[in-house]
Every structure is written in C-alpha cells, then in structure tokens.
Amino acid sequence: MKRLIFIILIIIWIVGLLLTRLVGLEKSPISVGFDEASLGYNAYSLLLTGKDEYGTSYPLSLRSFNDFKPALYSYLDIPFIHFFGLNQTTVRTPSAIFGTLSLVFLLLIFMKLSKRSTLVCVIILTIISFFPWRLHFSRVAFEANISMAFFTGVIWCLLNFKKNLFYKVSTILFSVLAIYSYHSARLSIPILLLLFFIDPFSFNFKVFLKHPFEIIKKLWPLFVVIILYLPLFLEFHTSLLLTRFSQTNVFSHYYPFTPHELIYTSNVWLNSLGNPLYYLGGILVGHITAYFSPKNLSLLIYPGVIKSAQAISESGMLGFFGGLMFAIGLVSTFREFIQNKEKRIIIYWILSGIIPAAVTWEWFYPLRSLNIYPSVDLIAGFGLLTVANYFSRNRNMVLKNVYFCIFLLIAFGTSFYNIINEFNYGAWNTSGEFQPGGFKEGVPILISLKSGYKTIYLDTNQAQSYEIFWFYMKYPPKNIQKIAYRRNVPGIEGPPSINFDNFVYKKFDWPNDKYKSDFIYWTTSEVKEDEIKSIKGAKLYKILNPEGNWIASIITKK
Amino acid sequence: MILFVPIFLFLAELFWQIYVNYPPTSEQLNFGVTNYILLWSLRIISFIFIIGTSFFLSKKLRTRIKSYYFILILICPCISLIWMSYPLDALKLFIISGIFYFLTRKNHNYYFAVIITTIAILSLNLGFFNQNPNILKIVSLKQPQSEVNFRFLIEDNLNPNISVPKTLKRLVYNKIFFALRDSVNESLTFFDFETLFFQEIHPLGQKAFVIFFWPEIVIFCLSLWLVMTKKISSKKEFLSILLISFIYFITTNVSTERRLIFSLFPLSIIMAECINQFLKSRSKKTKYGIIFLILLTSYGWLTNYYDRFVRPNFWLDNRPIAYNFFLSYLKTQTLNYSQIIVSENLSESKKYCLFYLKDCSLLKTDNFDLSKNRPNRGVLYIGFTGNFLGQNSENSFPQDANEEIKKRELEILKKTHILDNIANKYGQELFIVQTKDKQ
After folding, report:
1. Residue A341: per-residue pLDDT
2. Which span out of A173-182, A427-436, A484-493, A516-525 was modeled with the highest average pLDDT?
3. Least CB-CB distance to A27: which of B160, B303, B310?
4. What is the pLDDT of residues B278-326, one digit of tens each?
5. Is the pLDDT of residue B348 over 80?
6. How far is A293 from chain B (nearest CA, A)?
7. pLDDT tens sequence across A476-500
8. Which of B143, B159, B172, B183 should be substituted to probe chain A, the one whose Cβ sees the most A Cβ atoms within 10 Å?
9. Which of A286, A302, A414 sits opposite B198 (nearest CB)?
C-alpha cells in the first residue's frame, strides 16, 4: 500500500512538472524561431509524404539550412502533429516531455549518489526542476534537449551497469539515441564511455601494458555504439556530416590566434613572442572554465546567447539562486567527486559534455554543452543539501525550524519567480530576437488574401523566414520538395531567402512598387500609412505583436 | 637567487613605464601633481604602498612561499597599472591591509579582524572616497521598486499572456525579493574568471589590464584542490582576505580590474602555497607539471610585456593620451591666438593644462560645432571629427574627413587617431585646427 501511494505521488509529481512545461506553449514563447519552424515543418513533411523538405525519404539527418540537423526530434514530433496538427504546441511537445524525463533520470541519479531519503531527493529535484534553463529549454523545440535527456539516461544506466543485462542494453540504447538526436553527443558519448570504462583516476599504465586486452575488453559497449553510429556516416558523405563542425570550430574562427600587431614573422607559428599556441591554449582552457563560472551560469552576459533561442529573460542558465547553490555545492563536494568512485562519474560527465563546446568558437554557448547541465544541477543539488545540513546542526529547535522555513521559502519563491518570468516576462523580453514578431499574427491574414493575387512579395529582415512562413501556413510539402534542386548545394550555409510558387522575396520599394498591380506585399520595413492610402486600390493591414507594436504590414493592390 | 626575481620584475616594469611615458591620470592631478618630478614621486610612493600591502597580507607565509607570492604579485601587469596611475587605489589597499595586519598580528581572532576591516572598507569606499556602488542602489530598494513596477506594467499589457493571479505574483514581484535577486546577482559577478584569468583573450573584448595570465588558472584550480583536501597553514588567512576582497569588490564603483585588484592577494597566497607544495612533491610528474605551468606563466608575462611595448595605447586608458597629444603640441608653439577652444569631450583640459603649460588663460572648453557655425579667425580649435563635421549617432564618419575639414576654410595643424572611443558620436580622430587665414 505504502509503495502504491509512493508511486502515485511520484506520478503526480511527474505530471505536475510536465504541465508546467506544456501550459501556454501557444502563447509563450510568443512565436517559433527558424530552427523550431524547420523541425516542425520537416516533421509535417515526413508525416504527409515520408520525405523531408528536400524530398529525401526517411533521412537520419535533415539538410534543413544545410546544417544537417539530426532528424530524431522531427520523428518524435510526428504523432503529436498527426493528432493535434502543426502548431507551436505540437512542435515543442517532445522537448517538454524529454525535459521532464531527464528530471526523472536525474532524480534516480541523485538518490543513488546522495544516499538520502526519496522525500528529500524529490524536494531538492522539485527546486532544481524550476531552474530557469530547465523551464526554458523544455518550452522551446531544441534537439539538444532530447539528447540531454538520453545522455542523463546513459549516466543512470552506467551507475547501475554491473547490476544486470537491462542496464547494459539500456546504456547502448540511450547512447545511440543521444547520438542520433544532437551533434555534440556524437563526440561526448564516446568520450564518456571511454572515461567511464577506463577510469583514468585508478588507471594503471603498467597493468595495461601487461594485460592490454583485459582493458580493451571492458570497452565493448563503446565499440557497439561506434558500430551503431556508422549509418550516420553512410547516409551522407562524411564531409557533409561534419558541415556543422566546419562552420563552428574554434580553429578556423580564431586563426591566427595571436593579435595581428604582435605577428612579426611570415610564418606565424615561428613567432617566438606571442606564439599562436599560447593564445590557442588560452582560448581552449577559457572555453572549458567558462562553464564552471558561477557568474556565467547565473547571469546573461554573452551577446551571442542573448540574441538566440537560448536566451532566458534576465537570467543565466541557473539563475541567481541556482548559481549560488552551484558555488556552494562545488566547494563542499569537490573532494568527494574524485575520492568517491561512484561520484567520480560526475567528473567524466562534465569532461565529456564540455569537450564539444570547447572546440567550437563561442566562449560560452550553453546549447552545445547542454549535456553537462544536469550534472551542474546535481552539484547545485549537493549545494542545497549542504545548506540543509548546516541548518540541521543547530541545536536550538526553534531557530533550526525558522532557518529551514526561510530557506524553503526562498527556494520555492525563486521557483515560482522562474515560472512567471518564463511565462510572461520572458515572452516580452526575448520577443523580436529569437521569436521574430509578426509571422504568427500575420500569416492567417495572408492565407485569407493570397488566392486573389498574382504575386506575393516577401520582405523581412529575418534570416530563413521562408521556413517560418511554411510552418504557419502549413504549406504543402510537395510544392517545397519540387524546388529542392534550386536550393544551395550542401556545404554552403542555407540562403536567407527562397522564392516558392508565387511567393517572391523582394526588398520593399514603395516609390516604384506602387505602380505595379495585382500583388500582396508582406514587409517588416517601415511603411508610411499616408503613402499607401494615397494610392488607389492599395490597402494596408497592420500586424501588431503581443506588445501592441506595429511590427509588420501587409499591403495589397489589385 | 629567487630573491632577485622581484627586483628584476620591478626594474622591468619601471623600464616599461619610462619607455611608454604615460601622462598623469586625472586622479594623480587631483593630488596636485604639476610636473614630472611630482608625478614620479607619487608613482614611487604608490609602489611602496603596494609593496606594503603585499607585506601586510603575507605575514604568516614562510620565506620560500613568500618569495613565490611576491613574484606572483609583481608579474601581474595590473599592479604596474595601479602604481603608475591610481595612487588612491594603492592608498586604499595599504590602509585596509594595514588594519587587517595590525588586528591579526597578536590577536588570532580572524572573525573580529574581518568585521573591523569590513567596517573600514565601508567607511573608506562609501564615506571618504565617495563611491556609489550598485549594491547601494539595490539595498536602498529604489532600483528593485522600479523593476517590480516595470514588470507589472509589461506583463499586464501583454496580449496574449498566460494569466497568473496578481496576489500570487505579489509573493515574488515585490521589492524585497527583487533586492535579494539583484544582490545575489551583483555578488556573483565577483567570480569573474574572464577578467581574473583571461584578459589577454577576453571574450567580450573588455579592455583592462591583465590580472593573472591564463596558465595561472590551472595553478589556481590545483590550489583550490589543496585548500579543500589538505591542511595548509594559510587557509584561515586566505579565506579571511578573500572575504575582505569580496567586500572591497562590491563596495567599489570603478573598472572591473580595479574592483578585483584586492583578490590578487588571497589568490596569490594559495597559488604560492600550491607551487611550494608541488615543487616539494616526491612525484616527478607533479614536479614537472608545476614547472611546466611556471614556465608557461613566465612566457605569458614575457609575451604581455612585449605586447605592452607594441600596443601601449591598446592597454592604457586613452584619455590622458588625448590630453597629452594636444597639450604637448601647445607647449612647443608660440601661442598667438585670441583663444584656444577645446571640445567639451575633453572636459578636464584645464586641469591637465596646468601640468603642461604655465599660462592656461586662453584655454576654454566648449561644445563647438563648426558644421553649423563659422569658425572665428585667430582661434585655435581642438576637437574630434564630429566637432567639425557635425555629430553622428553611429559614430561613423567619412574616410576623407581631412578633406572635408579643409573645405571649410580650416587648416589642420596636427591630428591623431585615438584607439578608444572616448567621445561617442564625435569619432576617434582628434584634430588641432585653425582658420586658413588666421589673421
């Protein structure tokens, strides 16, 4: 009976977490970004035609903007689109579900490592589940979020690896799923398995030289995962699959590393003072340490992050409370991570998750290192435990209870703050950056008008906006597959605009355009109302964003 | 042998300062510096303050560790900047560390020492030096109050929005909660690894002097490992000074590297402990590892030292350089002008003038705009491109600005490019100009 009540309570807990991730997805974040639109539209295309937008049958990677997104997210999205249609909620639902699933894995890991009662672990995990990144990344369609959930699953299975066959098979299954769901896992999963099975902290090189096969034998799960990894390479040419790496790697971006004024030899590598190796070393070490900085984890600092879908309103990944708990957890449990063999997995987890981010050019880019964030949460969880332990040492019962109450009040108050910050303030604060305004509100008007006009001109400053139009218009995928031959060849980044059917991208130029007829203009450029009204037959539709600002215009002329 | 290294480092920094010949800063002029003898005297006094500070904070360290500690302090380019330009910072460090030293010299109650030193920092920063740190705005609840009001306004007008009852919102949308949030956020900026260790390659392009070279972050991590796992003699001292440096950080309102300067001392203490312990280690791997890191740090110092010779203007504040440019010119000329008008962007011209010239009566600062007004004959104009061609909100001016200026009946006597944007909307070219028909 007790067990049944416990199971029911855990189910209620999970449903509660899922609901906070699913509620109001149609309203906040306000609209989809181009990557979300691409994932959703490709799922829609796969559902209707069995092919992606380029006409490739059941691909493992989506060519999308020539960035070859792993296709697993879109496949997972198909059932939701099938039953509930293509909309913001359905495209974000897999992310919400896997964001919740990762918390279940994290709870199991935390229970195993902290050796505390389930109730204490559930309370701590409830606080963690409302950390800003936990909410935000589960409310936006990110392939990285499902990869993170599988990665957390791998950790849980590795902790129980020796128990039985179920965990051995699950380790391989989750590893492969993580690899097939996001780029960075392709590097971090093999590194994690290698580190876990070799265990460098207790590795003896002399023993290895004497019995090399004993150690190699231990690595069998890694070899199985590598074999199951191969179809990805067989589907496309290897160089195409590495497109994303060539677009984002640290080596080509920063070359020659040394400031130009300090280079005094024709071959930069021969610079005795200010050698590029010194600066490259600094960049790599800096990238790694950036992910441990409480400042970076708590505050929103980097412009590259602020203007992307990762932007959490007025907060870093952990927020102020999470950042503080992380700092406490790191200091209080750092020693145990190395000395305790079981807890050592946290170090391997962080190392394997950080390496893909370290070799990309951005200094701090949470999306590429998302696999490490559950471990960061775990450290913050240990921080919460440390604070709770500190209070429990107080002999005065009244004071002890008062301290606990204040602490829980701050912790749950912060959780509530994070929820409303994500729901409404976040929707306002990040609107126009990763949530380009106007499309969601304007497309229904465009659909109602488009049949009556010969040409539809599109003018927006949003890159790859065509994908957002297709998404909100639920444009027939077959029409898009037909124009695949006109699109950029792989290896070149996707074009900012593509003409399709009678939709033509063209810069808004009213002084000349006003003489044309039989067209619709969609534009985000500045439009002067009087100028439009002064032309006979021209009509202006103002598109307002949720803040009430005039963000785009539709102009028609017969 | 090792004792000669600090002397060598001091001489090297002195040589760099003489080579660069950096003009006085506004802070030094406030001390009444009117010539180079006074300027250099002040610099030497500031250096003594820094050495005094280092001494006060290292009393518990054994001789060998102390040598490593002094080397770590002296290789820090930021220390050179402080004694070259910011005497008040040096004085503040000296007073605070002195108080801590005398409180802990005989009495080993560190709690008491930290409390008294904190009171001293607050009195110095908030009272005597009149700093207006961000934390004060937060604690006074003014800033949190306006943030709460703003949030309510925004969220109420958002359409569509996810409705949350106002009474529930009030639980966290109140000035106390926002003050807590803002104070923790402000405190977390203290853990600024990028400014402390990666200034050579700062990701945000922040312009500041190097505090530690990047290889030192590895030594620092090893030191933290030592602090957490082993018994080290200076642990208590390290934690106390770290706490003091945190208080110093949140109660000052200057550039980030100057706010973080106090952290240099506690971090150097544990890094010196770490170097000593690792060098003593029996394991060859550990010994070679730490020697490699020391060599890498030395290479970092050498590279940065060379860099400061090649690009002094990149590292140094460009305002004194701008004043030096036109005042040095005026010093060499016979000033037969009815007036010398200097752009208001160089508002401290009169103060600087007393350092370079004997008579400053002709000098006047004015926000002149010669794109709207005709230049006066017999007047010497000193200003940025925007003063001659009209200001530009994007700070962008034509490549041939010289020709444009010449077209306006003006003669350019001298010009220079200022690397920093010290006059926003006015460009980075500084001109000394007179009318073509001067008489």
Report:
1. 81
2. A173-182
3. B160
4. 999 888 888 999 999 999 999 999 999 999 999 998 999 899 999 999 9
5. yes
6. 7
7. 999 999 988 887 766 556 566 788 8
8. B172
9. A286
Q: Is any Cβ of chain B less than 8 angstroms from the Cβ of A322?
A: no
Q: What is the ipTM of this complex?
A: 0.90
With beta carbons under 8 A apart, name residues in chain B contacting A414: 172
Q: What is the pLDDT of residues B233-265, one digit of tens each?
A: 778 888 899 999 999 999 998 888 899 999 999
CB of A339 closer than 8 Å to CB of B230: no
* Amino acid (one-letter) located at B171: L
Any CB–CB contact under 8 A between A426 and chain B?
no
Distance CA B389, CA B391 (A): 7
Q: Distance, in angstroms, between A275 CA and closest chain B CA?
A: 8
Cα torsion B159, B164, B166, B171: sign: negative
DSSP state letters, B232-292: -TTHHHHHHHHHHHHHHHHT--S-HHHHTGGGHHHHHHHHHHHHHHHHH-S-HHHHHHHHH
Cβ–Cβ < 8 Å for A440, A472: yes
Q: In what order do the strands lie in the sheet with A550-557?
A: A503-505, A455-459, A519-523, A550-557, A538-544
| Non-local CB neighbours of A5 within 8 Å, separated by 6+ positions | none
Residues A143, A149, A152, A153: is their CA dihedral positive or negative? Answer: negative
Does position A236 have pLDDT exceeding 70, yes or no? no
Stretch among A301-310, B173-182, B278-287 having the lowest mean pLDDT: A301-310
- Residues in B closer than 8 angstroms to A250, CB to CB, are none
- Would the CB atoms of B197 and A320 count as touching at under 8 Å? no
Assess whether pLDDT exceeds 90 at residue B118: yes
Residue A301 is predicted with a pLDDT of 83
pTM summary value: 0.88
CA angle at A115 for the pair A109 and A117, rounded to the nearest 5°: 100
Across the interface, whether the CB atoms of B162 and A24 are under 8 A apart is answered: yes
Rounded to whole angstroms, how far apart are CA atoms B398 and B385? 10
Q: What angle do CA B276, B7, B46 make, to 5 degrees?
A: 105
Q: Is the pLDDT of residue A248 over 60?
A: yes
Strand pairing class (A519-523; A455-459): parallel
Residue A294 to chain B, least CA–CA distance (Å)? 6
* pLDDT for B309: 94
* Cβ within 8 Å, pair A293-B194: yes
- Is residue A85 scored above 80 in pLDDT? yes
The Cβ of residue A307 has, within 10 Å, a number of other Cβ atoms equal to 13
Give me the residue spans of the domains in chain A. 2-30+87-241+291-428, 439-557
Which residue, B187, B193, B314, B99, is CA-closest to A259?
Answer: B314
Please report where in the chains the tokens 């709207």 appear, as a residue: B372
Interface touch B172/A416, C-beta < 8 Å:
yes
Q: How far is it, in rounded angstroms, from Cα A429 to Cα A136?
A: 13
Q: At A541, which helix (H) or strand (E)?
A: strand A538-544
Residue B439 has pLDDT above 60, yes or no: no
Looking at the complex, does the CB of residue A327 fall below 8 Å from at least one CB of chain B? yes
Percent of the residues in chain B that have a pLDDT greater than 70, as a whole number: 99
Question: Which phi-psi region, left, alpha or beta, contains residue A431 (left: φ > 0; alpha: ψ -120 to 50)?
Answer: beta
Beta-carbon contacts of residue A514 (< 8 Å; ≥ 6 apart): A531, A535, A538, A557
Nearest to A298 among B188, B229, B311 (CB): B188
Of B198, B225, B229, the CB nearest to A282: B198
Closest chain A CA to residue B198: A286
pLDDT band at B13 (very low <50, low <70, confident <90, very high): very high
Interface test with B, best of A273, A280, A317, A364 (most B CBs within 10 A): A273
Q: How far is A438 from chain B (nearest CA, A)?
A: 13
